[in-house]
Amino acid sequence: MATRSLVQAIHDGLAEEMRADETVMVMGEDVGRAGGVFRVTEGLQQEFGPYRALDTPLAESLIVGAAIGLAANGMKPVAEIQFADFIPPAFDQIVSEAARFRYRSNNAWNCQITVRAPYGHIPGGALYHSQSVEAWFCNVPGLKVVAPTYPADAKGLLKAAIRDPDPVIFFEHKKAYRLLKQEVPENDYTVPLRKAKVHREGTDMTVVSYGVMLHLVLEAAEKLAGEHGIEVEVVEPLTLYPLDKATILESARKTGKFLVVSEANLEGSVSGEIASIVAEEAFEWLDGPVMRLGAPNVPGIPFAKPLMDWYVPDLERIQGKMLELARY
Q1: Tens digit of pLDDT for each residue in 240-283?
Q2: Contact by Cβ (8 Å): 32, 2
Q3: Which one, of 112, 104, 19, lies nearest residue 74 by Cα?
């Protein structure tokens, strides 16, 4: 075991897969010589050379399009989009091409690419460096969308994503990169895709969350237990699409009350899909309305810190929403 941050665990997962399989490569803006803007790929070009840690032009459609071509010729590329906010130029390549390879070829072809993208709010990130865009891809059959929060999960999920024969979008919350460290296995392991994780057992309500919000939810759960005797079960959907419905529904039926917390805009969000699943398939077990907490429906996170703090749910609001549901 080694104590690693999220950014270090993702780096280790990339390096280990590249050492084990010479067809694995990374590509993107500044991923080579500079080691990436967040230093995720630091040292990979020195170890594996400029063609397996490939610096690309500032063109997201080219990055993903070239990755698709490389995959069609036997490589397993990991394409980095420098910020998730910059992914729209690659949307057509991801959705119209990569996601449909297997279906359009009647299962004759696959597209083994992983697209990594840092997402989520950071101070000063504003409209172009702080967005949560995961919902854009969670309505696309043929894709898997992964968003781990903790280092050990992230390393195992990245390895599973790289080995998966079909395209995976791998979101990394940039504020979580160096938020905490955790013991991470140094041996080869994977974490299964399409599985949720129960971080905290509880009996009074279920809260589903991911990203930095998950840390706040867990903190709020401990406060509610200590101050009010309310035991909250906390579930993380490590894979946002397809969702692990079984784990989510089992928890909702167990506790009878259900809340989803994320920092994304509420309308058309992943939280809405999770809430609808529970409302439709666990209604008879519920003792209160399915609730959600998220960002307001404005076009982007404000630049000014007081407005950013208003936009992103904080510990006080999360705890307040839990209490509101508990008292229903």
Answers
A1: 999 999 999 999 999 999 999 999 999 999 999 999 999 999 99
A2: no
A3: 112
Cβ(149)–Cβ(210) under 8 Å? yes
47 and 177 part of one domain: yes
Structure tokens at 63: 């990055």
CATH (domain of 73) = 3.40.50.970
Q: Which residues are catalytic?
A: 129
**Looking at residue 317, what DSSP letter applies?**
H
Nearest CA among 174, 79, 178, 78 for reference residue 131: 174
* Residue 88 preceded by cis peptide, ω within 30: no
Please give the order of strands across the beta sheet that includes 144-146.
53-55, 24-28, 76-80, 114-119, 168-173, 144-146, 239-241
Q: Which two tokens stand for residue 108?
A: 């004759």
Residue count of the chain: 328
Mean pLDDT of 4-17: 98
Residue 159 shares a structural domain with residue 259: no
Q: Which residue has the tokens 């950013």?
A: 308
Whole domain around residue 6: which residue ranges?
2-184
Give the CATH number for residue 204: 3.40.50.920
